[in-house]
Amino acid sequence: MNIHEDLRNQGLVRPRQGRVLGGVCAGLGRRFGLSPWGARVLFVLALMILPGSQLIIYPILWVLMPDEQPTWQQPPAWQQPTWQGPAS
């Protein structure tokens, strides 16, 4: 098991929707039950209290947190291409 699978199993993924920069705050907010903007506000407040540490942590989490897996849906039958065979 690698770090990406471990984080994905824990629910720490960067969502495809609601990103502003890399999706780290949105992913952390989703994991801990906060809105993406709530997580961003907490991140900025933590930056004011402990300056500098978040500037190191954010890029590391950006690399380590996997992207959210896309939910693929099969298109309806009328949208699926049909093969007609070679032209005669």
Protein described:
The protein is mainly α and 88 residues long. The protein has helices spanning 3-9, 24-31, 36-49, 53-64. It starts with a helix and ends in a 24-residue tail after the last helix. The longest helix is centred in the middle third of the chain and has 14 residues, at 36-49. It has one domain. The chain is elongated and about 70 Å long. It is 47% helix and 0% strand. The mean pLDDT is 79.
Mean pLDDT: 79
Beta-sheet strand percentage? under 5%
> What number of structural domains do the residues give?
1
Characterize the main sheet.
Answer: none
Report the uncertain regions.
Answer: none
Provide the fold topology.
Elements: H1 3-9, H2 24-31, H3 36-49, H4 53-64
Helix pairs in contact: 2-3
Compact summary:
With 88 residues, the protein is mostly helical. It has helices at residues 3-9, 24-31, 36-49, 53-64. 12% of the residues are buried.
Features:
single chain, 88 residues, mainly alpha, 47% helix, Phageshock_PspC_N, Phage-shock protein, membrane, cell membrane
